[in-house]
Design a protein that fits this description.
This protein has nine helices and four strands; from the N terminus they run αββαβααβααααα. The protein is of the alpha+beta class and 256 residues long.
């Protein structure tokens, strides 16, 4: 393993989360040994919108080479870490990261702009992310989000419990796409989701009311009653459909 590996757990996270990450890093370093080049924390935990007991910990592990045996070893220990809200990591080599930046501009821009190097050498400062496919990826993800939302609604029988799970998950997947829309227009991306909605409204004329309501639900700031849950679902879907219609309009005008 490289001699200058470091360990820098973000201080803004709750003490128990920082301790979880320290224990996790110790095990990952021992498990991967010399093959480990970097461990990177990204997502809400790397920014200022982490919600204790609600947000997951997203990890990218950069390896010198991909070996099925190493992944199998990691698989044996991940179940325990999954209980600590650590999502199964992304496993990439430096070469794979460089070669795929054109294919996944949305994901790589998100990580590049908001991440914390926990161990090793940070590949993102020098990583060029090709944004030519950013608009297409954003549109695919947003349309796919709506399709999956309808599908999961049916799978859940339209029940209140299912809706209350579905909506925050949908919004979580949508937020990177909304930030991507601002990047396409050359706009700076606000640090908070509230600021993001404000800027989307001013830049695109999109009504984000449904998004704001689900954000409040996701944060635990609101608890809609049984009669209100279906209406909240309809308002959120209306915001999502309005966003898609606006994208279609911009494309027709040659502004997309």
């Amino acid at each position: 393993m490289a001699a200058d590996l470091l360990e820098d757990v973000p201080k803004h996270l709750p003490a128990e989360v920082r301790q979880t990450l320290r224990s996790y890093l110790a095990e990952v370093r021992q498990l991967f040994g010399q093959a480990l080049e970097a461990v990177i924390l990204y997502g809400s935990a790397a920014g200022n919108e982490f919600l204790p007991d609600r947000s997951n910990l997203n990890i990218l592990i950069v390896l010198a080479k991909q070996e099925t045996g190493l992944l199998a070893q990691y698989a044996k220990v991940h179940k325990r870490w999954g209980k600590e809200r650590i999502v199964v990591p992304l496993f990439l080599t430096q070469a794979e990261l460089q070669a795929s930046s054109e294919l996944f501009p949305l994901e790589y821009l998100e990580i590049k702009e908001q991440h914390v190097l926990l161990v090793g050498h940070d590949p993102f400062p020098t990583l060029h992310v090709d944004q030519r496919n950013l608009g297409l990826q954003c549109e695919q993800e947003i349309r796919g989000n709506l399709l999956r939302l309808r599908q999961r609604f049916v799978e859940g029988g339209g029940k209140q419990e299912a809706i209350l799970i579905l909506l925050p998950l949908s919004l979580t997947a949508l937020l990177p796409c909304l930030r991507g829309l601002l990047r396409i227009k050359g706009q700076s991306v606000p640090a908070t989701s509230d600021g993001l909605f404000d800027q989307l409204q001013s830049q695109f004329g999109i009504d984000p009311a449904g998004f704001r309501e689900v954000l409040s639900l996701k944060r635990g700031q609101s608890t809609p009653g049984p009669l209100e849950v279906p209406r909240l679902f309809d308002r959120y879907v209306a915001s999502l459909e309005g966003l898609i219609q606006r994208m279609e309009q911009l494309k027709a005008e040659g502004k997309w």
